[in-house]
Amino acid sequence: MLATAVAEARAGLAEGGIPIGAALYDFDGTVLGRGHNRRVQDGDPSAHAETTAFRAAGRRRDYRGTTMVTTLSPCWFCCGLIRQFGIPRVLIGETRTFHGGHDWLAQSGIRIVLLDDAECRTLLREFIAARPALWNEDIGHE
Amino acid sequence: MLATAVAEARAGLAEGGIPIGAALYDFDGTVLGRGHNRRVQDGDPSAHAETTAFRAAGRRRDYRGTTMVTTLSPCWFCCGLIRQFGIPRVLIGETRTFHGGHDWLAQSGIRIVLLDDAECRTLLREFIAARPALWNEDIGHE
Questions:
Q1: Among B47, B80, B133, beta carbon nearest to A80
Q2: Which of A16, A22, A84, B2 could pair covalently with A53 via S-S, beta carbons 3.0-4.6 A apart?
Q3: What is the three-state SS of chain A?
Q4: pLDDT digits over B57-116, tens only?
Q5: A125 touching chain B per CB within 8 A
């Protein structure tokens, strides 16, 4: 499942965007929605990867059995999404470059799987080194 | 400022949507972005009012001095947005129909102003009475 999120991150990078990718999977391994950060591409500050994947999945009555896969620890915005809609499991590529709200999700009973993936880290770290102001803008840091 | 959010909620209702509206104001009273819930209109489950108003404001380097105005207590998703991007003040039309995460925002140092507005309550309560399944879908309740 992480490979899908990484492919999304790479697609975002190729478009000149921030390389973070995500996908929402159903219990049986079906991809319900996938996407990547689109702040640069769409001028949309709400287009974080997880929210983009969630949007791509369209309307659903419930999120039972789904898994949100993301290349990076989700920020408060995307953690709020996961908690509000009851996505029961989150698979995270890495948490070292950015530590978002996944501990808060774990405390609320959501299952968190941490992978510490080197490819996810390298992709984002190289981008941040090249475009620090853009990264800070994306997470609301001044 | 609440009048802008209420006008957005009414516009959403007129389109057949969920009547929740929001606006992001700058320190000097300028509207940076405004919008309403667009789940029905766009088939977009991420289009909560606050997120729609935030998106409409476009990219910004920081949110110092801004106020998010909304007709309803923000859910976890929209609270996460407010916290992640450092929106320092939230003005809320009512919290009785739905109690989201505004206490959590207050604990993190964000200034919360509660209004208990009858028009906001009536608009949403009448809608929920008429379309309970749609409302439950919008907040991820099964």
A1: B80
A2: A22
A3: CHHHHHHHHHHHHHCCCCCCEEEEECCCCCEEEEEECCHHHHCCCCCCHHHHHHHHCCCCCCCCCCEEEECCCCCHHHHHHHHHCCCCEEEECCCCCCCCCHHHHHHCCCEEEECCCHHHHHHHHHHHHHCHHHHHHHCCCC
A4: 999 999 999 999 999 999 999 999 999 999 999 999 999 999 999 999 999 999 999 999
A5: no
